[in-house]
């Protein structure tokens, strides 16, 4: 994978800047490599010493006897550009650069500027990256601590602590966090499959590593420590793909504005809104943890837990107080306490004192001995009342903590149903409890020091499970939305041609109405007298508002007068607005006054919806309560377009749960489906109109299913680029829709698949014969469940494409229904070089030319995407597919011994073809 194999599976290593000085990084790296007992050649490079740590050294890179797979560069930052050039000439394909500060180290351009031009100043980091690109070399860092690959006995880092073998991959931008995690994990006997410090990530980044590690057999979970992300589209695509195969947790620094700026300085990335990162992490199916305390709990949970089957938690304790603290923590995080069945309560009553709690938490009383613990745990394991069990122990003279832990471990390991549940433990205390917690850790059961830590760890699993479920929720289709993108684009071009960039309610209204928004009728008055005349015509009460392109916030000069009830109040209010403008902003342009009839606010809720351009993730949608002081860092829920109804609903529910929208006593006043539809319309408006740099609807009046825009402002900017490229997630590519005809004259529509297609796709599969399904999937697939269907229909258009062939069937009642009759799909590698295709046609519609239509459609798409190769695999018995592939130019390799047929089509010449 473009050099990553040399990084993650190196067979030889050179250390550039190796040293015999124990205070130098070049010495620490050599000693770590030797102590780790790496099996391949280790080649120190230094002109100062004949040998380093007893290993023969080489004076220059060119004098190396062979080209190393991996080079660790331990030299001073100002030397690294030249060193990367030497490594490139030697043929080295990947280098880890340890030096810090290269992104802030200026380096003047070597090209002489033309007359009148300023001399270009580049950073040493950008020059180093450009040099690496020239030789096709990949870079980790700069400012990296190095990497540790325990399964290869490789420690190519300057960490003072090594890593044990395990199943967690840890990728971090912070070297300090790396060493902290290693020290803690060593104590807990937690191991890693890969431990990599990215540093400033000028080249190799989170996205590429996620793509690689999610296929690594040694990696079961991935933990990321993120300061900043540079390529949002690539990061989200990789994260969405990886999260389907591996559990991924993210620690994102810079939660506050000050912290965000510190993170920007640390790695040189842009400072995006923390709430947007939060939305991106959830949208990708990952889970975010917020601090070091949660980070440690998360690592321990990942190391020992099995996938959570449900959210019901049972708590067994010998102390009521700690259990209550656990319940409080569970309630605060939105967790669910399991309910005990009558049968379980009766069984527990037979072995526990009469004063036991008779409910969950199961308090077996402070005088509980080891036998009582064992009997209670056995009864619980035999039940189906819970999904996870937290076993708690407070220091006791009767039940020795260490011995109790050993006996319970034996019970858990021998009980046949233990693997059905998540088992967590909390042995409270320090001196005596440490060894007991280690007993559980050694046996593979997470052990926590406090009740809150145990609950935090459990809720990591719960929240991760919720994110995964929401990721595959089937959206509801509400049919065609009212939108006129061509009309709106024409209006925007006319406004930009007139140099109009800031728009207020009256100007924004026709654009919003073109997308189906309800707006409040608005009239323009040139002076107070005309405002009073308009008010007489439309009826009272009315509102009068200032219209000025130079005053962004009307509240600055009290530029809004509400509830005016007669002509005199209107005239006086309008004049007062103009007087305040004259006094405070005498040079401001005034484009008249806006007059609106007052909306009926009785029982209605006022919300605020805005579109903000994030420095990392591009356009995002914000939702919250309407307020004069609106801090987007605190007061808004965030969603990343494109939205469908499921994603919009998730945004609204999240806004309610986090208090961004207050839930009223009469919840029917907030019509969630209606609000979701409006959010989807806003998402579509953003996608269709890249010139909209910002949009602020304040307030949106919500009364039942009536949503009315009272006030709105919009900012426009000229846009000439790819309107989809600015989005963090590629939206539905409507441009690929195509109408074609079958041999029988029937008209069909070829279009990209939609998440809303899940029911249609299920119905389509039911019309495909068992034999045809077997040829397509190489196995008896049976009936696809929701998760499988979601994977087919909820695709990432940036890496995958599925075209469905649809036609309309007339039902008995005369209504028309769109049905899917064929599907073709292609899944590309992360580098957009090769894709694998598949085609499936309804079994009763063969012989109409649909297979060839679908084949040509996917070939044309892959060719336009710039892919080099299209591959496929089928069975020798699938003669129809084999003949079709040959007709359209595939090279077909029939391997009868293996029972497979491989198909290859070269779409365009490759560099080595």
TrEMBL record:
InterPro entries: Acyl_CoA_acyltransferase (IPR016181), ATP-grasp (IPR011761), ATP_grasp_subdomain_1 (IPR013815), CoA-bd (IPR003781), GNAT_dom (IPR000182), Ligase_CoA_dom (IPR043938), NAD(P)-bd_dom_sf (IPR036291), Succ_CoA_lig_flav_dom (IPR032875). Keywords: ATP-binding, Nucleotide-binding. Residues 509-545 form the ATP-grasp domain. The keyword Nucleotide-binding applies. Residues 748-908 form the N-acetyltransferase domain. PROSITE patterns: ATP_GRASP, GNAT. Gene3D superfamilies: 3.40.630.30, ATP-grasp fold, A domain, ATP-grasp fold, B domain, NAD(P)-binding Rossmann-like Domain, Succinyl-CoA synthetase domains. The keyword Metal-binding does not apply. This is Protein acetyltransferase.
